[in-house]
Amino acid sequence: MLSLTKTMAIVGLITISSSCATIVSKSKYPVTIDSTPKGADVTITNAKGVQVFTGKTPTEVKLKSGAGFFKNASYEIKISKDGFTSKTVPLKATINGWYFGNLVFGGVIGLLIVDPATGAMYKLKQKEVNETLTEAKTTAAVEQTHQLRIYDINEIPESWKSRLVAIK
């Protein structure tokens, strides 16, 4: 019975110690998001389009670096405020240098199982997002003349967006 316990302990120790990036690094990273002007809305969505965070600037959020087995995370951070042009910032995890430590220290279990499963094989390098929003251009009323104007979606006031119709 004692030898089974020792064997299980050794197998557990090998499994835990054979994942270099998981031990030395982490799988969630703090990202500070700020804007000028302050108090802008922040919406973060992942690569699948799932909203993972909403809040106001300034804020700090912890984001996962992995999105599944052998899949790095990527996010879109949208910063918006009424009267200002919205900005969208992409954020993508890249390979963590500690992951390659498995070749020397961790071994096959860390290289092929533990680090890919925990997401520690990836790292979010960008720790700060700080955007300056520009004031949206106001539109003057058209005086008794009909004109066709083409606007960029980011130039349209928020109050108009609910009345937009998609053209297919």
Automatic annotation (TrEMBL):
The keyword Signal applies. Keywords: Signal. It holds the Pfam family PEGA. PROSITE patterns: PROKAR_LIPOPROTEIN. It comes from the Bacteria. Residues 1-21 form the signal peptide. Residues 31-97 form the PEGA domain. It comes from Niastella vici. This is PEGA domain-containing protein.
